[in-house]
């Protein structure tokens, strides 16, 4: 086992990893930008080292500084968290070239899944059901129009290198295609340096269902059921739950096995998420994330496992500490993302926290790096906390969420907390009857198009 792990991240996810390290008796090293000198992860880690100025390209994405920080502190392994360098295959290669261990999948697996066309081809070959669409990249508008005709509108044009909702455009008709095709290409080029795009049938009323998988890198893998992340704004998840309210035990077992077998087949190591759209009882693969997800705690809650601990174990060459049969679902869990954002247009709202009080009690987990007097810097993501609740069933989890939100105090900046109070008053949230467009429509009806 490692003696010391460096965490190449900040905020709540850095704390999450530090906590796992501490329980495992492993020393932790925090890295931080000058803007984060007073951040909670710096205070909580056993050691901390400054790796650059506020801009993330010069700090949290600064590979040379992070490698140097490992050498200076004697850290043997790097946990990337999510975002930043977590899905950067070149970084993984450099880490390995320095005889350090990357806590996550191999550079090759990250590369394959990071390119959406290759990922889709790979998954298809492994027997995973995919959204109907173009066979590979679509080189020009003429081919795009042919595909639109073949599959029928609406279709979605996606940048193969895209992510975070960028580089995707829907075309509802042939007239629409020209601008949608060009915009998706341009976004792919400017955001990801790659203008290759592909086309899929656009599903009109799907849910977003993702399967958590975990492999030991030696051909063994399990699945930990699904998360339903259908409540999204601009393709960003805001409310996630497990198990999915629309998924039957048989469906879970079937799609779970397909996913576990697929990753076992490629000797996948560590945590991964296979994302699907789900419509009329069918699953359609959209992408695989080769890292820990923001919403992993709902899975941890219902299975009673520590996914970060497990990531560290397999990275150190140990076996997984559970088998598929050990993994039984216990109750229902929900996570809401608390962002420092001003409603109704969700504009970032950094600033000083004058008062912070985290909720507690049975079945409540608050993952946050906030503290009284903390100043949220303007340079990074606006996620400031995740409130996770668990109940014996969905109604109990929702009641607990309502209770916990009532206890949560974040003063000094605007947050998305009022959004969740309002959502909990909606019948659809209680019946679970919604798809990936529901939240946008609800926001439009409430605030108008913004
Ligand atoms: P990203 O990598 O940018 O997150 P994804 O491929 O995971 O992109 O898609 C993000 C979201 O976009 C999905 O959760 C869904 O809301 C929407 N989406 C993607 N593909 C389709 C599709 N074929 N039909 C309908 N919606 C889609």
Concise structural overview:
By secondary structure, this protein is α+β, with helices and mostly antiparallel strands. The protein is built from 15 helices and 22 strands.
Question: Can you describe this structure?
Answer:
There is one protein chain. The chain has 450 residues and is of the alpha+beta class. 35% of the residues lie in helices and 28% in strands. It is built from 15 helices and 22 strands. The protein has an eight-stranded antiparallel β-sheet, sandwiched between helices. A five-stranded parallel β-sheet has the order 3-2-1-4-5. Strands 7-6-8 form a three-stranded antiparallel β-sheet. A hairpin with a 4-residue loop joins strand 9 (207-216) and strand 10 (221-233). The mean pLDDT is 97. The structure holds adenosine-5'-diphosphate. Residues 131, 156, 162-165, 168, 200, 202-203, 206, 208, 232, 235, 275, 277, 286-287, 436 line the site of adenosine-5'-diphosphate.
Please give the alpha-carbon distance between the first and last residues.
Answer: 51 Å
How many strand elements? Answer: 22
Strand arrangement across the biggest beta sheet: 13-12-9-10-11-14-21-19
Bound molecules: adenosine-5'-diphosphate
The biggest beta sheet is recorded as:
8 strands, antiparallel
Q: Tell me the helix content.
A: 25-40%
| Count of runs of 4 or more consecutive helical residues | 15
What radius of gyration results from the CA coordinates? Answer: 21 Å
Percent of residues in beta strands? 25-35%
**Shape call:** globular
The low-confidence parts are: none
Structural class: alpha+beta
Mean pLDDT: 97
